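REQUEST ID: PR-0412
SUBMITTED BY: lab tech R.K.
PRIORITY: routine
TASK: structure prediction, single protein chain
INPUT:
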Amino acid sequence: MKKIFCLLLLALILQPIHSFAASKVDHGNFLIGWGDPHDISRFLSANLLDDQHTVLFTFNRCIYQPAAGLNAFPDGGGSRTIVKRVYIATYDINSKNVKIVYAANLLDKRAHDDYSELYISGVKGDKILIRQPRDYCWFDLKTGKLTPAPLNDDIRGLGYDAVNIHLVDSQGTIVIINNAAANPKWSKPSLAVKYPGSAPIVVAGPITQYYGYRGREIYYYPENGKGTAFNLDTRTYREYAYKEYLDLTASEMAKNNEPNISIEFGSGRKLFIDRGINAKLQHDPLGLSLQDIAPITDIEGLK
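STATUS: complete
OUTPUT:
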């Protein structure tokens, strides 16, 4: 009995020493107290750029170890994360080349918590809008830098909560669908526009439907009235004919038939390219998986 007690005591003493000196990936050991590593990395978002052969995508690498042995006593214990990183990268469909353009080690105390998960919200020319957990930011593909774009804070300052964000041009004009923050469940949405370098302004509300953007105009249907178009340049309103609505919806449907990048359902570990061919959706593997990318993610400064 005394021998067993001494072994357990020795294990407890060695645990912090081993944890300090351990490499990034430790395999299961009863005395050490950590199980085999589990990789839950996944693609987060992906968009096809205007050149039609470059895919911009975001993904994370997350590996954790469940508690085992003494660490799992008495209630199963917790787990420890040994790799937690977020990336923005490009993939050239023609050359099959992957280039990481932004990376952050989220286990580093200096890392910004707001950037723990990054989703591509919109791409128009060189303008790339990224959604992060708390708000939005602009991403510069040439420099690899993220710049805060506090859309949620700006909208809340007007007494609203943002519901949908639409990047509508390469200058960075954004259309925002909002609900009243005081009682969002029962309120009708309103329509706001944020021009580059200025605060959002509410241009319509309440509305029943936002239909889209074309020719420097945003189309919507007010709660009381007829279909209306707001001109972003002149900031004037006009009623539009039913045929314009049909043309607009037809053009939106045509956009849906353009090539689109999607993420494998469930695991999120593969990318696909979707094309509308003969009124049918063709869903083909892009030829890129997280397994292909893993060797190049251990870049300098992130190990």
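NOTES: Residues 3-28, 299-303 have pLDDT under 50 and may be disordered.
REVIEWED BY: pending
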